[in-house]
Specification:
With about 120 residues, this protein is α+β, with helices and mostly antiparallel strands. The protein is built from 3 helices and 6 strands, in the order αβαβββββα. It has a 3-stranded mixed beta sheet with strand order 1-6-5, with no helix packed on it.
Amino acid sequence: MMIDGRDELPDWWIENQSIKSGMDLPFYDPPRFEDGTYTHTIVPALEEELECEILFIGIDVRYLDDWEIRMDDIPVCDIKKYRTQEGNTIYGISSERFCVVIREEATSRKQEIEV
């Protein structure tokens, strides 16, 4: 899944494409979920809706080690992270499942605060 037409691309995407092409590397495609949905189309909306910060993070990991999804710097769950042959990132969860996991975590945290 790629967006055609430079007018539709965010500045950071164009910058990353330029860097990769300048180094004679394969085409840049931003991180996405395993269903092909780009993370940048989902994560900011969830952050705004739930008033939180969501991160995909790997600390001292090696290739194919699990990463974490964190909400406000607190671990939510482990997640697989892969690279395509072109070196682009794919997270091993569908966008739909990701949204469910994040919303459930937000609800759980809210309930803990209310108790």
